[in-house]
TrEMBL record:
Keywords: Transferase. It comes from the Eukaryota. The keyword Transferase applies. This is HXXXD-type acyl-transferase family protein. GO terms for molecular function: transferase activity.
Amino acid sequence: MDSSPSEVKIISKCFVKPKTIPEKWKEPYHFSPMDHVILSIHYIQKGLLFLKPSISESVTPKEFMETLLQKLKDSLAIALVHFYPLAGRISTLKTNDSRSHSVFVDCNNSPAGFIHAESDLSVSDILGSKYVPLVVQSFFDHHKALSRDGDTMTLLSVKVTELVDGVFIGLSMNHSLGDGSSFWHFFNSLSEIFNSQEDNNKFLCLKNPPIFREVSGPMYSLPFSEPDESISQSERPVLKERMFHFSSETVRSLKSKANEECGTTKISSLQSLTALIWRSITRARKLPNDQETTCRLAAGNRSRMNPPLPMNHFGNYISLVIATTTTGDLLENEFGCAALKLHQAVTEHTGEKISADMDRWLKAHLKLDGFFSPNIVHMGSSPRFNKYGSEFGMGKAVAVRSGYGGKYDGKVSAYPGREGGASIDLEVCLPPECMEALELDQEFMSLVSSSSSS
């Protein structure tokens, strides 16, 4: 056994292969243009924290964990039959043009990772901390890995960390294979299989099976010779991470206020909450009035495609919705003005604009220059994802947490509140001095609920 930092000890590591190998997956699974763009972005790392259930005297804690781990491995082997590209490796194909190449997934005989770990921490150590403890990053495999590293790393890894009174199940998925919607589709499907205990035949039929594009094509070539030329990464600054909870009542109130101030009914709850955090973080940064500030939202594109794609279409169907203004304009005008600006940006995010943005990314050789600008607020993930719907014999999760991947100054992730309804949790990442200023912002903190899944 080997130890990783921050009080997490690795007990065992193994690989899990698909239970069967569908014939069609023996062909290369070529990347779409968006998949290529995301090669330079971290793995998606999200997980669920559970309280250990009360167990009968006839079952020891060791036997409980052994049963849980084996059932998770068996469920993973079946899930990989449905989501077979996750049991592959990234590979590069040279083209006839010496200045281009194509990236694809080789699905032949490559397993997913499975890790069992232990920690002497309790659930309250995670939930009771004002800031997300650094140790949470150790609950995930592929720490700091970029999607491009999938040529040598597993494209999916499950890490199960046993706490004193809980269990954390953390998934790390290569982002170039799928977006957040696809990630939670897999997580929910793994749960569905896990809970289909009695009839083994049910394992092979999911209620909502993934749909993949054609395996064999089309093939897209990229305008540079060596894949590593497309990858740019920088070490992130020291960040504080904190969960802020907004009750259903607060979210509805913000939406009503935004629409009332703008004389409309079309501004959504998430657009209203995003406007609040955009203004609050910008105020905490103490930027000059003439300084430009940008808010980005990661928008799902499936419904915007022509024709629209079903939500279970697996892959990367996201792009950025961007609203930009000056600090003075953002803070001196009413809250509703910021919400309306975001709503207009979402409305203008059409299929035609998505295609134009993709062409621009490809012509820029997929560089992420400016992506991590210190004046940006980025709203990622979605409260619409069914995050608390994944259960593994321990009841409903008590919290959602994420790993190192995809975090930087101004990154915000929206999760559904555990109690449901319209409640939302925001995971906010800021440098310590900005986080302190945000916490001293009475307008913002007065809206944050003390009752939280965080």
